[in-house]
């Protein structure tokens, strides 16, 4: 038997493949939404990755051109705060100092009940000595960083005048 021409053989193979694909189509249609969604998500993630890489490169270039900002005077860090000495157990005066410190400061007897905003409103009327007394009281009691920071900065402002 003589072999058929290549084009006829290709057409027959293509027809059989088309029939096979049509038979698989119902099963493929069920998974099609998942496939489309996963491809869309993959593409979205890739675009986000590219955008992020470009932004990082841009940041690196701009960082070389930009002068660093000086540290603002209001910015404080834990390293800037003076450390309070620990109370030694063998110190005979430690108990008496703690008892004296338990009393509210005479400057503002209701100091412990004040909010940060309420204290800020009263700061301008206080002297540096009054503020030192409040700061010592704060450090031995609640030691709230926002209160100690505000008092420390106010004392520094008064001393710099």
Automatic annotation (TrEMBL):
This is DUF8129 domain-containing protein. InterPro entries: DUF8129 (IPR058442), LipDrop-assoc (IPR047728). Pfam families: DUF8129 (PF26450). The lineage of its organism: Bacteria, Bacillati, Actinomycetota, Actinomycetes, Pseudonocardiales. Residues 70-83 have a biased composition (Acidic residues). Residues 70-89 are annotated as: Disordered. Residues 112-159 form the DUF8129 domain.
